[in-house]
Amino acid sequence: MLNLAMFDAPLLAAALLIGIATGWWAFRKPR
Amino acid sequence: MKAPAKLLIALAAVLAAGAIVHGPLGRGAAFIAATEAHARAVIGAAEMGQVTVTFGRAPLTRLATLSGDADEFQRNGMGFFPGLTGRIAAVPGVGAVRWSDDPGPPPFVLPLIVETEALALLAWAIGVGIGWLFARRRKRESYL
Fold first, then answer.
1. Which of B37, B35, B39 is nearest to B88 (CA)?
2. B59: cis peptide before it, omega within 30°?
3. Is B108 exposed, middle or buried (0-12, 13-18, 19+ CB in 10 A)?
4. Is pTM beyond 0.80 here?
5. ipTM of the predicted structure?
6. How deeply is B12 buried, as exposed, middle or buried, from its count of CB atoms within 10 A (0-12, 13-18, 19+)?
7. CA-CA distance, B12 to B18, in Å (whole number)?
């Protein structure tokens, strides 16, 4: 059975933030 | 630097973070230990103290292996009455259940670290999508 404790919240939050930073860093248009 | 190179660097960072949290920080072992304790309590509540439960340790997996004396009814229950197999399968965090004397190979389960990394990568990919939305938004050039 699925357990919410598997979804390690700090790790997933960090991964999401890294992802947002990555997306902005990689795809922003140079001025 | 090109976008793919940046994505690869960030991907490696996320995988490293997942591995550190799982291994050196001990979250993987703690999760398996907690699940195992819960499964033990379920066995105790069913008054089947002669049965022991272990989880995969090298590598850590969510596969519960039961061993000890138990007849067919105690193992698999009957009708709507669950046996130990069903009760352990219902413990949150358990991925699969087998008995140590089951013939045939054990069921395939992913190592916990692979599941952790997959979840981290999913969260990262969602974040990249959000960041991409931010990055492509253009400044308004007019007041309209």
1. B39
2. yes
3. exposed
4. no
5. 0.83
6. exposed
7. 10
Separation CA B97–CA B28 (nearest Å): 19
Q: What is the DSSP code string of B101-128?
A: T-SSPPPP--BHHHHHHHHHHHHHHHHH
CA distance A30 to chain B (A): 10
Measured distance CA(B12)–CA(A11) in Å, rounded? 14
Question: Do B78 and B132 contact (CB within 8 A), yes or no?
Answer: no
**Smallest Cα–Cα separation from B97: which of B48, B70, B61?**
B61
Q: Hey, are the CB atoms on A23 and B18 less than 8 Å from each other?
A: no
Chain A from 1 to 30: CB within 8 A of any B CB: 1-8, 10-29
Residues of A in contact with B133 (CB under 8 A): 23
Quick: pLDDT tens for B97-129: 888 888 888 888 888 888 888 989 999 999 999
Question: Read out DSSP for B60-94?
Answer: EEEEEEEES---HHHHH-BTTB--HHHHHHTSTT-
CB environment B121-144: b (16+ within 10 A), e (fewer): bebbbbbbeebbeebeeeeeeeee
CA B39 to chain centre: 15
